[in-house]
Design goal:
Layout lengths: L3 H29 L5 H10 L12 H13 L3 H26 L2 H12 L2 H6 L6 H20 L4 H15 L8 H10 L2 H4 L5 H9 L5 H9 L3 H8 L10 H20 L1 H15 L7 H20 L13 H14 L15 H24 L16 H14 L7 E5 L2 H10 L7 E3 L8 H13 L4 E5 L7 H4 L2 E14 L2 E13 L8
Parallel strand pairs: 1-2, 1-3
Antiparallel strand pairs: 3-5, 4-5
């Protein structure tokens, strides 16, 4: 049995390590942050127009951005700080969960594996929906395990309810948690009795009540979030051989997962999942818990990868349990027929490989910049480069307008262009997106529909991704259109050409151009 003094010493060691990591991440963000990622700028724009729901996601990320933007004054460092706090705090919860399931040794290894996981570095740098989702999922895992292990701790039930309720507002993936919890309880006689507890059912199912506001929002917006989410489960269209594309998507998914976890951790986890699923009912309670919340949904995702393209971050929450299971195996608390126990001595190599990948994520971009190779194909920040120059060029056209001109700011092309422009301009004004595809494909399209009657009669400064004339639906929406000039900016390490137009007297908001 671990002494209280030893347990306190272990806790202090972990807190000091993670505090140092958090400080380093904040310093890195302060000195090396370039531009927000496309999704970050997009969600930041959501945060400037608070609501109970949005086109593709529940509202929590917008609410977080509203708070972060208010505290940070619209600066990028505020985004990075919030991500660093959420991502690093998730490792502290990972440590506590592992210690509750196994022991101090396994918990320490879990923290080291988490730090050596590129996914956690990304999670702690970019403030997207995954940072609050993984944070809430980790708390829910810890609280649910403590509740089942401590024979119905009421405090843990409250924590479970709150983490689930908030998590549902972060991302739709959180909705799977109660289902997995029921599967875990139903699998064995020693946990089945908990299914008769009404308070547990109230916590699990009652957490879905937090989704009522976004549900009402969707009711008023033709269930657009459901339509968008449903597209993720459609089999991808193919241009060539269906078999070749499906095989390509499958191995692409497996490859990216090995990359986000690091190869050593990914291999051990995959082995434990395959072996564990065949004996899940016979596994002891801690291992069964991890298999249900990790191996089982990961197996479903692998099957899905055989029929459609999968995003690398979709499996993020299931790796919380996965890392605990791998740490338990390396510590000897988890036994399995494969990998062989002798391979546990490879832990230093697994950590070293992971830390090399993490180091690459953090330091490759500054090194490329020092070598004059900024934006190289191997530069992790390649997709972030150049947007500050885009804003500078467009701002020059704004300053040429007659003083007092209150022109709308419009941008054609992908939504990322619109949100990056809005964030990068000196006064961070509202920039509207003119969707190049028919239908509703972003939150900007919904806002345009709502605001269209208020915009009639306004002039507009239009950024076009075409060097030629504006698309007819756009040019015909104004009494007259004048081309003011062109410029070229290097975005994502590629030269891109833009034109700027002045549209006078908007007659009617243009339909999405074909």
């Amino acid at each position: 049995m671990i002494s209280t003094a030893s347990s306190r010493s272990s806790a202090i060691r972990v807190i000091l390590l993670l505090s140092a990591v958090l400080i380093l991440r904040l310093l890195y963000a302060a000195y090396f942050a370039v531009n927000p990622a496309g999704d970050e700028a997009y969600y930041w724009d959501w945060g400037r127009r608070l609501d109970y729901g949005y086109y593709s996601k529940p509202p929590l990320i917008a609410w977080i951005y509203a708070l972060v933007d208010w505290l940070g004054g619209g600066r990028l460092i505020a985004f990075r700080a919030a991500a660093a706090i959420l991502g690093t705090s998730s490792l502290l919860i990972l440590w506590s969960l592992t210690r509750s399931l196994f022991d101090e040794k396994a918990a320490w290894i879990a923290v080291l594996l988490g730090l050596a996981t590129p996914a956690n570095s990304v999670l702690s740098f970019f403030l997207t929906i995954d940072a609050p989702l993984v944070f809430c999922w980790s708390i829910a895992l810890w609280a649910f395990w403590k509740y089942t292990d401590e024979n119905g701790n009421s405090t843990m039930l409250i924590v479970l309810f709150l983490s689930l309720a908030v998590g549902h507002l972060a991302k739709q993936m959180m909705m799977i948690f109660p289902l997995l919890a029921m599967i875990f309880l139903a699998l064995s006689v020693d946990t089945r009795s908990l299914l008769r507890r009404s308070r547990l059912w109230c916590a699990l199912l009652g957490s879905y009540l937090s989704l009522l506001p976004p549900l009402f929002w969707n009711l008023r917006h033709d269930w657009i979030t459901f339509q968008h989410t449903g597209h993720h489960f459609e089999a991808a269209a193919t241009k060539g051989s269906v078999l070749v594309e499906r095989i390509g998507d499958f191995f692409s998914f497996l490859g990216t997962q090995m990359g986000v976890l690091s190869p050593g951790t990914g291999f051990v986890l995959a082995s434990l999942c395959v072996v564990g699923l065949f004996s899940i009912r016979k596994a002891n309670r801690p291992l069964r818990f991890l298999l249900v919340f990790g191996a089982l949904p990961l197996a479903v995702m692998v099957l899905m990868a055989m029929r459609q393209e999968m995003q690398p971050n979709w499996a993020a929450v299931f790796y919380v349990s996965g890392l605990v299971m791998v740490a338990g195996w390396y510590s000897g608390a988890v036994t399995a027929s494969y990998p062989p126990p002798s391979w546990r001595r490879l832990l230093p190599a697994t950590l070293a490989t992971g830390f090399v990948l993490v180091g690459y994520f953090y330091f490759a971009s500054p090194i490329f910049a020092l070598l004059g190779k900024e934006g190289h194909k191997a530069d992790p920040n390649r997709r972030l480069l150049g947007y500050e120059n885009l804003a500078t060029q467009f701002q020059a056209f704004r300053e040429q307008l007659p003083e007092g001109t209150n022109a709308l700011l419009l941008a054609t092309g992908h939504r990322d262009l619109t949100s990056q422009l809005a964030f990068g301009l000196p006064d961070q004004p509202v920039v509207r997106n003119l969707n190049p595809t028919p239908g509703i494909s972003s939150q900007y399209d919904l806002w345009n529909l709502e605001d269209a009657p208020l915009l009639t009669g306004r002039n507009a400064l239009i950024l076009s991704t075409s060097a030629k004339n504006l698309a007819k639906p756009i040019s015909q929406a104004f009494q007259s259109v004048e081309k003011l000039g062109e410029f070229t900016v290097r975005l994502k390490a590629e030269d891109q050409h833009f034109s700027v137009f002045l549209g006078r007297d908007l007659k009617k908001w243009p339909k999405n151009p074909q």
